[in-house]
């Protein structure tokens, strides 16, 4: 059985998710999974680099260090499953995004996690650097996962929305097959602002199960101020990241709303995620939203989302056959497959690219 290995670390920068998967027509089988957390020091260095506080030497060192960790995650899932390395066709590695700037005179997206190191330490062909070809064709370079959503989560009878809750939230609108084009875009923050505020105020990298947010109350004036950001009204194609939605963004708004309790800020940031998503959902034909990504494990966020999107149903992608944690690494395993089979991996109607493109750079074993 031919298998593919997918590696993903998102904008939350908390670690690497690895999957070993086989694909059969429009279905898939997970063979094994593994999660590898970043050491605290490395995570702090990555977060600093993402805010432009890193020299070229620091970026180069982080590229190598994360490459070693991506290879470690890959080798661990191979060892855990006892897979024959000769049955693994290739690795698809998203890498770790450091900066994503899709607008301006010279758009770019920078992912580190040296794929040459991954290929060397695993002995497997590695496909990486997926975003830049789409951007070269005039696209946003993100989100890329909607092509995978379309392939495996589309339905002939039901229009669906796939909602990914990473550091940044993105949606994929999947009309019932034959009833319209797939669309998708980044809606704005998912966990990014909550994580940043939690780390700044408590020293904890995230608010476990939303317990701290549950202690607070929504400040309607602050929430309204935040929701007035022009990004939320912008139509797709669009993408964003921590370059925009970061702790400085929060502090800019808090300067106009002084003397707030820290827990109230956290609760308001949670509500911002829920409402900014719900206000950008398609307003026709949508009955069910399927959630994936780390935010699916936050019960307070899921509760707020369920209230915000009602009367539409909120479910998780497990009901479509894939656990929320493993959707994105599986998507990049599939994108590697697309690349090596000479097939496009982007959806121009999502990214805004001038056409379909074969994505990624190939690093032979």
UniProtKB/TrEMBL annotation:
Pathway: Cell wall biogenesis; peptidoglycan recycling; Amino-sugar metabolism; 1,6-anhydro-N-acetylmuramate degradation. InterPro entries: Anhydro_N_Ac-Mur_kinase, ATPase_NBD. Its EC number is 2.7.1.170. It is an enzyme of class 2 (transferase). Catalyzes the specific phosphorylation of 1,6-anhydro-N-acetylmuramic acid (anhMurNAc) with the simultaneous cleavage of the 1,6-anhydro ring, generating MurNAc-6-P. Is required for the utilization of anhMurNAc either imported from the medium or derived from its own cell wall murein, and thus plays a role in cell wall recycling. It comes from Marinobacter santoriniensis NKSG1. This is Anhydro-N-acetylmuramic acid kinase. The lineage of its organism: Bacteria, Pseudomonadati, Pseudomonadota, Gammaproteobacteria, Pseudomonadales. ATP binds at residues 10-17. PANTHER family: ANHYDRO-N-ACETYLMURAMIC ACID KINASE (PTHR30605). Pfam families: AnmK. GO terms for biological process: 1,6-anhydro-N-acetyl-beta-muramic acid catabolic process; amino sugar metabolic process; peptidoglycan turnover. Keywords: ATP-binding, Carbohydrate metabolism, Kinase, Nucleotide-binding, Transferase. Belongs to the anhydro-N-acetylmuramic acid kinase family. It catalyses: 1,6-anhydro-N-acetyl-beta-muramate + ATP + H2O = N-acetyl-D-muramate 6-phosphate + ADP + H(+). GO terms for molecular function: ATP binding; kinase activity; phosphotransferase activity, alcohol group as acceptor.
């Amino acid at each position: 059985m031919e298998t593919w290995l997918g590696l993903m670390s998102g904008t939350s920068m908390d670690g690497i998710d690895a999957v070993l998967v086989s694909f059969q027509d429009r279905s898939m089988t997970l063979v094994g999974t593994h999660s590898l957390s970043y050491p605290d020091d490395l995570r702090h260095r990555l977060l600093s680099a993402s805010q432009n506080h890193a020299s070229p030497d620091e970026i180069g060192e982080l590229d190598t260090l994360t490459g070693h960790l991506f290879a470690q995650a890959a080798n661990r899932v191979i060892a855990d499953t006892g897979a024959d390395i000769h049955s693994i066709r290739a690795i698809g590695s998203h890498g770790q995004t450091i900066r994503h700037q899709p607008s301006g005179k010279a758009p770019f997206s920078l992912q580190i996690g040296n794929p040459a190191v991954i290929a060397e330490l695993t002995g497997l062909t590695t496909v990486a650097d997926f975003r830049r070809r789409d951007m070269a064709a005039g696209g946003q370079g993100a989100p890329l996962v909607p092509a995978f959503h379309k392939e495996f989560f589309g339905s002939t009878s039901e229009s669906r929305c796939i909602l990914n809750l990473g550091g940044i939230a993105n949606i994929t609108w999947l009309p019932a097959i034959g009833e319209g084009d797939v669309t998708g875009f980044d809606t704005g923050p998912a966990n990014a602002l909550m994580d940043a505020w939690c780390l700044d105020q408590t020293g904890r990298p995230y608010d476990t199960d939303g317990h701290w947010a549950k202690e607070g109350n929504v400040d309607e004036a602050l929430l309204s101020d935040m929701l007035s950001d022009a990004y939320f009204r912008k139509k797709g194609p669009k993408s964003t990241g921590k370059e925009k939605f970061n702790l400085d963004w929060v502090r800019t708004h808090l300067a106009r709303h002084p003397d707030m309790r820290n827990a109230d800020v956290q609760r308001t940031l949670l509500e911002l995620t829920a409402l900014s998503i719900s206000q950008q959902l398609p307003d026709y034909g949508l009955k069910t939203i399927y959630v994936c990504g780390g935010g699916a494990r936050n019960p307070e966020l899921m509760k707020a989302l369920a209230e915000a999107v009602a009367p539409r149903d909120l479910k998780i992608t497990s009901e479509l056959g894939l656990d929320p944690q493993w959707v994105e690494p599986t998507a990049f395993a599939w994108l590697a497959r697309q690349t090596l089979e000479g097939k496009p991996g982007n959806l121009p109607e999502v990214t805004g690219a001038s056409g379909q493109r074969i994505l990624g750079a190939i690093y032979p074993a």
